[in-house]
Amino acid sequence: KNEVEQSPQNLTAQEGEFITINCSYSVGISALHWLQQHPGGGIVSLFMLSSGKKKHGRLIATINIQEKHSSLHITASHPRDSAVYICAYSNSGYALNFGKGTSLLVTP
Amino acid sequence: SQTIHQWPATLVQPVGSPLSLECTVEGTSNPNLYWYRQAAGRGLQLLFYSVGIGQISSEVPQNLSASRPQDRQFILSSKKLLLSDSGFYLCAWSPGRVGDTQYFGPGTRLTVL
Questions:
Q1: Residue closest to B75 by CA, chosen among B12, B28, B11, B5
Q2: N or C: fewer beta carbons within 10 Å in chain B?
């Protein structure tokens, strides 16, 4: 059983819509990571957070440690936001434990 | 600034042939280094990580091995490739703190025929 569950698996949105991607985990963690994988395969780290909320441009990430849940929000979505968004956690070790990703398509 | 290089970008190899993928990092010293594999339709799987020269930790028993001959060089190898080794291989680095942000290379797409 995967210790990181993401929902939805696939998401299609119209340009301009507000998007939410959810991540739930079942173990104690030291930090939660959100990453973006472009259609060509390259991966970029978006956020690392251990509490509260972080914002970068149109992206917002939140985490609720008690509920073991994190969300990634995209405001005013754009076709260039189309990618796979991956949630991962770190705990006592160096490795990250990844979810399977949410595939987002934003149509014009 | 730090950069991470991987090569080759694409590779097609026959079953039973050897493999060598190389990853180098510039602009930092003593990074933690990682090899991941992403099989078609699946999530990222950590294969190996290294916290220093000659120090390799294996996460998953498999047909692959890793080496770190220099501080900023990480090599993924196989003596005999299997069909199941096909996938997208990503190298990553992070500063030497547990659970820190990881920075990924461009990846190598390996097809074993």
A1: B5
A2: N
